[in-house]
Prior knowledge:
The chain is built from 14 helices and 13 strands.
Amino acid sequence: MHNHTFGEVFERDTPRVARPSRAATRVRRSYDEDVIAPSFEDDEDNGIPNASSFPCIDFLRNAGLLDDFLFLINSVGLSTYMEDESDQFYRLTKIFVESFKFSNSPFTPSVKFKIYDMPITMKLKDFCAALDITPIGTAKKIENRPKALTELYREVTNDDDRTIQRGKIRNIQLPAIRYFTYYLATSILGRENTSNISSYHLAFLVAALTGSTPYHLGALIARRLASKGPIYGGIVASRIVAYLGLYVDPSDEKLIPIKLDITAMKSHQFVTTDSNLENIVYKMLFIDGDEREIPLPQADLFSVRRRPWSRFKEEVDEQLRIRGFTSSTTPRTPSPPTGTPSRILVRPPACTKDRILLHHITEVPPHGHRGIDLHLGQKPKLGEVII
């Protein structure tokens, strides 16, 4: 029996809509369900699937971020998911994501989707099992501006007082947290963009940074898959297919794997454009517009194991001075108007940067995860499958 508070049972997350006709949908919407099932219009949704991203271990190791990144991954329970680099497929991903619906029923929350032309219904707890995510925390919709999430956003950005909806991932100061958030946007949350930060990002960061799970992470993923936005649900779809023992159409096109390597991080303005694996320079932004370009690794300065999860400019400059780095003021390109904050270019002296050897954590694959088998002439049984 699922335990729910009085308000959770009777509070709806979405406004009432008229009941659709039987011909309009395969799923009849009940008036006592919280159904999140958006309609897709050409001007509302990007129907081109993107491959889910994988972390780049070489980049993380050379930047001195691997240990902290794995700490965040393990804290939120995503170790097995992160290590799954299964093939992803164009039509499988597109159909899965665009047909995805989430029903937060008070007794049996569930998700509905299609694997090609096969409609499937899964209990939310089984959906979580397929992703190897612990099904705990409230599955209720996050309110617009929860105080706890707003305070966390201000902490990781060093007191950026903008609303969550206007905040940017780039404003996150510590590189491991920022990298983790880009990974969430392009792999875990299958409908996220890679610019604005959202309550979904911050709910995952609460779990990653504090170890507590006030929000049901599986429900967060389900809600994002059922909404509009760019499609990054390839690994989710592939894990579902493998968990259910289904087959991939052999004519389906594979999506090209994407890694959050140094090239990808340049596009996110995470590092300077002239950075390479032997000379990684992090771009750290402050709320007044000033920017620091800081050679990595800087394990002591950027550790996620101590609070606050951001740094003041004075602390950054003092730490770099102690470590023997030099700094100089350089104008922005193009040159800014008078009064525009400048950026500080921090360069190391002529010496070899310290490298920190970090361990890699491996996990046992989840129960029931058999990998994806290509369909070899045996068609799946048609008709809706109830899991």
